[in-house]
Each structure stands twice: as C-alpha cells, then as structure tokens.
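Many introductory courses stop at the sequence. We go one step further.
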Amino acid sequence: VRPLVRTVLASMADSETFGWQVAAEVQRRRLGEARRKACVCDGQKWNWTIFALHLLPLGFIGILDFIHLAVHLYAAASAAAGKGAQAWPLYEQWLRWAWSGEVGSLLKGLKHQAALRGEPPAGVKEDDPRKVVADAVGYVRNNRDKMNYPEYRRQGLPISSAAVESVIKQLNRRVKGREKFWLRGGVEAVLQARAAHLSQDG
C-alpha cells in the first residue's frame, strides 16, 4: 500500500463527537467513492462503534490490526506455556492460523488453553495467566469478523495501523509529559494546530 496523502484528526472530544469529525473528513475527501476502502483499528469497542455508524454504510471493510492481535497472542502464549522459548511454538501456531484466516482453529486453540487453566476469579490481577488467556479468547471472539487477512492481502488492503500509531506518538510528544499541564481548551487548541502541522494537505 502506497500512501498518497495523510490527514490527521485529533481532539479531546468524546468518541461520539469524534466519530462525526471522522465522518466529515471522509465526506470532504470523498473516500466513500473509493473502489476499495478499509478501516484498520485495534480491538477497542468504541473504534468499531464509530466504524459501524459512519464507515460501514459506505462500504468500508473493518480490519483488526494484525500487530495488536499478535501482541495479544504472544501474551496468551506466554501465560499458557511460560515466557521466552517455551511460549514460542504455541505462539507460532496461533500466529500462523491468524495469518491464514483460520480463525476457528485459532479460537479453538485459545479456548483449549483457557479451559486448562479455568475461569479467572473475580478481582484477579491483570497479569494472572487465567485472565490473560481468557482476555485473548474474548479479543479474538469479538473481532473474528475482521480477521480475514488472506482476503485483505489479496485486495491490497492494509492490515496494520502502524502509520497511525506513529502519528499518535508525534501528537503525544507535543502534549504529554510530566512537565506539561493543560486547561481543556488549551490542549484542544494545541491538538488542532499539531494535527494541521502533521497533515499533508496544506
């Protein structure tokens, strides 16, 4: 995929308001008229709420970011088999299934490891192996309709949000830090100026 132009949106607005900002930019750029179009996100629910309301009706394809998925799978493999080399065979198998679009096999493998460990009890720590594996099961189950990676590759669609992640780091570098304190209106103004600076459309 060769980028043509980058437009950056940034705001302290809530996700519903931000969704309408995204929709306005899509309309301004007439992206809905593109023959192939995709929205690549991590598994956060609000991302897919915006997608379902504003982009799905225009024919955009929702794609789960493959790198985020790989991170979840490695964490689950480490929780199931132990960190380092012990986890690698399990992680590699799961990653191959994901890359091949064999989501059913992947989910079955994750559920098997979750069953071996049992349900995580209420209030368990985030790094408890039972919770890590159970969270991975939920992550794949909730996003399985956005994991047809062989088809996305065939269409030449992106499967990683790395380009967006790098822009987020550039935004954060300007507004986040121990020595930085903002009033809400002030940080919003800085975000708008920074987004304009990082955009490539003048």
